[in-house]
Write a structure and sequence with these properties.
With 402 residues, the protein is an alpha/beta fold. Helix content is 36%, strand content 23%. The chain has 13 helices and 17 strands. The strands form 3 sheets. Strands 10, 11, 12, 13, 14, 15, 16 and 17 form an 8-stranded mixed sheet that branches. A 5-stranded parallel sheet has the order 3-2-1-4-5, sandwiched between helices.
Amino acid sequence: MERAFQPLLFGGDINVYSVARAFHEAYGVKSVCFGKFASGPAYGSDIIDYRVCAKNEDAETFRQNVAAVAAEFAGKTVLVIGCGDSYVKLAAENREAFPANCVAAYIDGDLMNTLINKEKFYELCERYDIDHPGTFVYRREMGHDFELPFKAPYICKPSNGVAYWENPFPGNEKVFTCPDRKNLEEVLDKVYAAGYPDTMIIQDFIPGDDSNMRVLTCYSDRNAQVKLMCLGHVLLEEHTPHGIGNHAVILTESNEALCRKFKAFLEDLHYVGFSNFDIKYDSRDGSYKAFEINCRQGRSNYYVTGAGYNIAKLLVEDRVEGKELPFVLADAPSLWRVVPRKVAFHYIVSDYHQEMKARIAEGREVSPLFYSRDKAAARTLRMRKNLLGHFKKFKTYYEKKN
């Protein structure tokens, strides 16, 4: 069936493929996607028109790509969707320059820059009574002359993730866990020597394994009203240097009190579009502490679609069809994973094995990268090879740290 809209995605990773799969499942539509490399989960897929563009993150090139697709599908609403922080930022900052048939469901650039800056995000958390880890904002001029209000070990990460990845260096990690003060100072020195220009966030380390993590995905409509909240209980994360913190296994979970707190936060800020929160349960005081907000659907967004709440339908019904959506607090049980079952059961604490087995027995287990209607054999073979690679990755990185 011919549709009145065309999804236009930017990126090439699991986030992109998960969104494209949601559109294909709901509407049978093939998404156009611009990625930087001829590789990754989205490359070679039958459900994606994948176009390689090395300068994808250049603002002028980004605008040109949007305009070209808007002209190609002149009679349709083009849904511009960023699947990475840099693309989301480009969409928010350039949306006023997009052709009239484009829709970019994002907040304005100023609010986005406030929220993605971790220092400013934690200030907002204080204002809205949202728990977060004990935090110290480090500035380069402090050198080694600073006092911390909490003891080691420390978490150290950039306040500005986009600027951080623009200044790579050997040994750079998404998040550093520093066992002592000496190691923390060494990390800070390396980061600034590489040219990183912004502040660093030093935080109190919250004890507990991966199963203390939660992920909350929300959708706020064109009137800034939250319409979907789906909480995931993360059971296992990846532990490679660049992938640390990426979700590997998630069980959907219900916690209305926690969700309502974030709902009030988003609506008071007049937030629109998808949002994604990383949260950790702190057994020391029984609180759930927010680490950050992503102003987009998260990398693991298919845990929402797989649980029965298709994220593509939310966007289309709100922004294309103009429907008034009901508020849904998701509660359907589901198991999402991007690692082999053997890896999941080997590295996840046994407390959760029974529930995992129950979801599998019920047929409520989803693996986002393997879609029966995507017949591309070469891509499927690559994805299976990558899946098996997790055996080595977890043995190399997870066992080394634990």
